[in-house]
Amino acid sequence: MSRIGKKPILVPGTCKVAVNANTHEVAITGPKGDTLKVVYRPEISVVWNEKERQIVCSTDMARLDEGNRKAYWGTTRANLNNCIKGVTEGYSEKLEVVGVGYSVKVNGKKLDLKLGYANLITLMIPLGVKVDITTEGGIFVNISGADRQRVGEFAAAIRSQRKPEPYNGKGIKYFGETIIRKQGKATGG
To answer: Using CA atoms, how far apart are residues 166 and 77, in angstroms rounded to an integer?
Structure first.
């Protein structure tokens, strides 16, 4: 049995859930109006219990050891739980930009990065993702949204433009990330 998959998902009263068994899709709408959809595998069945306000994921127990049923079961439950948390609370990532002359600016639906290269780097902000920039005590980029995957992917895309280097510590890093510093070359005398 899947330890994660067998747990029911409790849904707050502010969320609306619609399960379509024909298309294997669950739509979850939150109090802010955000709607997230999850498509699940046909091996898994998802049941929405309106009276108890919970979602139950299950699979055929006789065929549990066939293929990846246990993995699909747990993954489906985890994805649905992430959607409920996303539409109620939201997800956020915070990045820190360290470097002399480095700057970040939101330009409409684009994010402009000056990271010490000759050219300006422009990234498109994904739909449903909000970017805020704070410049007190350093440059901080706050990425927030309802979809956990989009928030995480966009944060990783920003960080990949200039990963932190171990000698001077310059680059883009997650807030609170520890960079193991190296000493550098020592001159002989």
So the answer is: 39
